[in-house]
Design brief:
mainly beta, 0% helix
């Protein structure tokens, strides 16, 4: 069993930055496919970025490419989402997720993930 906890959300003005953190217990992130998703108010959960098990591949959604950066610190068993040039449309609850049953590639579909955090709210105001 893997427990995931996100932190770092908050209120930020458009153009600003935030860094989200995600901690795992019960298993190391280095052996898992990991992703960030978000759910804007009144909308479906959507993929933001994902990384393969070995960290060799990272895939960003077009809406965040060039602005968000996904990183992993294996020594601390943490992953991070650095968010820059934030826009009001980035407002959402952000979720960290991990897939233990899949082995290969980057996964962009929520059902492919087994473990989820509780989410952290990011609000961007103009």
């Amino acid at each position: 069993q893997v427990q995931i906890v996100e932190s770092g959300g908050g209120l930020v003005q458009a153009g600003g930055s935030l860094r989200l953190s995600c901690a795992a217990s019960g298993r190391t992130f280095s052996g898992l496919i990991v992703g960030w998703f978000r759910q804007p108010p009144g909308k479906e959960r959507e993929f933001v970025v994902g990384i393969s098990r070995n960290g060799g591949s990272t895939y960003y959604s077009d809406s965040v490419k060039g602005r968000f950066t996904f990183s992993r610190d294996n020594a601390k068993n943490m992953v991070y989402l650095e968010m820059n040039s934030l826009k009001p449309e980035d407002t959402a609850v952000y979720y960290c997720a991990a897939s233990a049953r899949l082995r290969v590639g980057v996964r962009i579909n929520a059902p492919e993930y087994d473990y989820w955090g509780q989410g952290t709210q990011v609000t961007v105001f103009s």
